[in-house]
């Protein structure tokens, strides 16, 4: 007689991101979702560029400080 098999069902608990995407899909049309995501990606890119500018400014200030001391 074959051994009894047990089936285990695993249900993933949705993440907060998944839940927000589900709500978004109910409330917004596809075009609005795309526009919102594009806007958010622009915000993230602006933040990255601002961080890069600050880092470049620090490098330039450090380089100019060394140059002025050397002369």
Explain what you see:
The chain has 71 residues and is mainly α. The chain has 2 helices and no strands. It has helices at residues 16-27, 30-70. The mean pLDDT is 83.
Chart the SSEs and their pairings.
Blueprint: H1 16-27, H2 30-70
Order of helices and strands: HH
Main sheet record: none
Radius of gyration: 26 Å
SS class: mainly alpha
Tell me the helix content.
over 70%
Query: Which regions are unreliable across 5 or more consecutive residues at pLDDT < 50?
Result: none
Keywords:
single chain, mainly alpha, 71 residues, 75% helix
Short description:
The protein is 75% helix and 0% strand.
């Amino acid at each position: 007689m074959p051994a009894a098999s047990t089936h285990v069902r695993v249900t993933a608990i949705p993440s907060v991101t998944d839940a927000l995407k589900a709500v978004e899909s109910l409330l917004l049309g596809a075009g609005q979702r795309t526009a919102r995501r594009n806007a958010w990606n622009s915000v993230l890119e602006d933040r990255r560029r601002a961080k890069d500018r600050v880092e470049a400014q620090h490098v330039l200030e450090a380089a100019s400080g060394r140059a002025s001391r050397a002369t």
